[in-house]
Amino acid sequence: MKDRYEIAVVHGDGIGPEICRPALGLVDAALRQDGLMHWSEYPAGAEHFQATGDGFPEATRKACAAADAILHGAAGIPGVVHPDGTEVGLDFTLVNRFTLDLYANIRPIRLYEGVACPLAGVKAGEIDYIVVRENSEGLYAARGAGSLLRGEMAVDPLVQTRKGIERIVRKAFELAQQSKGAPSDGVRRVTCCDKANVLRSYAFFRQVFDEVALDYPDIETEYAIIDAMTMHLVLRPSHYNVIVTENMFGDIISDLAAATIGGLGLAPSAEVGVSNGLFQPSHGSAPDIAGKGVANPYGMVLSAAEMLDWLGHGNGDDRLLAAAGRIRTAAAEGLAEGHMTPDLKGKLSTGEVMDILVGKVAGMA
Ligand code: ATP
Ligand code: MG
Q1: Residue located nearest, by CA, to atom 3 of ligand 1
Q2: Would you say 155 and 186 are in contact if contact means Cβ atoms under 8 Å apart?
Q3: 284 CA distance to ligand 2 centroid (A)?
Q4: Which of 222, 238, 261 is at the close of a domain?
């Protein structure tokens, strides 16, 4: 437990500041204590690059590395790229991911009451699982290191190390232990999602999964092949509790999963390492709606709750866990009562939704 937590806040581009700024006030209200979170704002992103030629200043990097956690809105403007064509907005996430070794991308997938589910007959609460995506190796580890041979053949290596698999699988089991289990039967379960039947690297992933699982005898385990997994997440989502998978597979199924719970505007994301964590909504900077005050703040709000949970568990601080619970309850009530922005067919502005959520957490026990 700490007297205060240092949070590096990077609002970023587009709708980033519109959703990130009010989230700070919501967290303070949920904690019932100003100053327990010490917010320090730093610049990064495509707009800062346009203004200064630097999309991720050294001072921001240092602050992110030193902070207890990083809270981020979104970054990127289409067309604002480096000379090699890579997006400036991605620098913030990717540089932090690799320099701070944020090896676990945790994406909670939960269907809230009041939100239209594209799957027929699925009710609120019946989708409630976590995708744990390996964030540091797999098929994306070799980003830029793939090769094109004589213009005739391209190769990208898929790298999975024992250390990398062990730590992501362990993270998945720890999250299962903290969870209530799958909605269908309350069983705490970790599903290993791979392609072990075809590729050696995934067979290794599964082998290490089995070894780590021995340390968690209270958690049920199972395997799912990635192609069948996409079908299961549509046909029987209530079976799942925690799903652990390789980088690219996690990238794909987390978008599929987000679609089943009402879309990108609702999906939070956490990227965590040993002692650093970066929390931001799954969506991007949405330049098409920036400046209009209609951005859906729920994904950001739920990402802030993820931050409080992670800090609370890591520091044995129940005050933070209680605040995370209040924020999730407020979000659930807000959605159930129809307090939504236009992307969810609602009529409210970002600010109106946030005012309602702040009122709710302030009035809670
Ligand atoms: P990135 O490459 O940064 O992930 P993207 O190209 O996937 O970005 P987003 O910025 O996530 O795109 O936006 C995709 C679509 O979803 C856009 O039409 C955008 O308006 C909408 N969208 C994304 N986030 C929100 C939000 N919070 N509220 C409302 N609409 C959103
Ligand atoms: Mg995207």
Answers
A1: 284
A2: no
A3: 6
A4: 261
**Structural domain boundaries enclosing 92:** 1-107+269-365
Task: Return d(Cα 150, Cα 147) in angstroms, integer.
Answer: 9
* Nearest ligand to residue 93 Cα: 1
Q: Which two tokens stand for residue 19?
A: 């959703």
Is 9 strand, coil or helix? Answer: strand
- Check pocket membership of 289 for ligand 1, CB cut-off 6 A: yes
Q: Is 72 in the pocket of ligand 1 (CB under 6 A)?
A: no
Q: Which of 261, 285, 312 is a domain's end point?
A: 261
Confirm or reject: Cβ of 13 under 6 Å from ligand 1.
no
Tell how strand 153-155 and strand 147-149 pair up. antiparallel
Query: Do β-strands 189-194 and 220-225 pair in parallel, antiparallel, or remain unpaired?
Result: parallel
Q: Is the ipTM of this complex over 0.90?
A: yes
- Quote the pTM value: 0.95
Radius of gyration of the chain from its Cα atoms, rounded to whole angstroms: 20
Position 29 in a domain: yes
Single-letter residue type at 39: W
The tens digit of pLDDT for each residue in 160-169 reads 999 999 999 9
Q: Are residues 123 and 240 in the same domain?
A: yes
Q: By the 8 A CB rule, do 345 and 296 touch?
A: no
Q: How far is the CA of 317 from the centre of ligand 1 (A)?
A: 34
89 and 178 housed in the same domain: no
Active site residue 288: no
Instruction: Report the distance separating Cα 90 and Cα 46, nearest Å.
Output: 9
Is residue 39 located within the same domain as residue 173?
no
Give the tens place of pLDDT for each residue, 174-184: 999 999 999 99
One-letter identity of residue 93: T
Strands 69-74 and 189-194: unpaired
